[in-house]
Amino acid sequence: MKILAVDFDGVISDSALKSLFISHNAYCKYFGSEVKRNFGGKLFTFENWEEMKKQYKKEMDDYRRLRSYIELSGDFFVIIKIMEEQIQIKDQQEFIAYRNQLQFDYQLILFWWYN
Fold it and tell me: pLDDT for 23-71, tens place per residue?
């Protein structure tokens, strides 16, 4: 028997950096070359991951803080957008208000998330 265990909210293990790896790369694929402000404009790879964690510690800490506001799967993209635009979000209400003004194609986001 095969079992697929998905820890979407990070309760079983701290998946913050795993979700950052995937969401940042998917975000860059979704928007293309016009959004290369985060993490020096580089995609994360298995080869550069450890160095990127050291070099961009502040950004990764910002991601962890914002991650606490996630309610929906598309919110991972919202976090990357907030970081790219350097918007200050102080609480859940501000996060939701910002998310509600975005016009993402969430079906396409899911495609890039899983591919």
Answer: 898 888 888 767 667 898 889 999 999 999 999 999 999 999 999 999 8
Q: Classify residue 93: in a domain, yes or no.
A: yes
- Does residue 38 form part of some domain? no
Max distance between CA atoms of the chain, in angstroms, equals 46
What residue numbers bound the domain in which 107 lies? 16-30+44-114
Number of domains in the chain: 1
User: pTM of this prediction?
Assistant: 0.78
- 86 occurs within a structural domain: yes
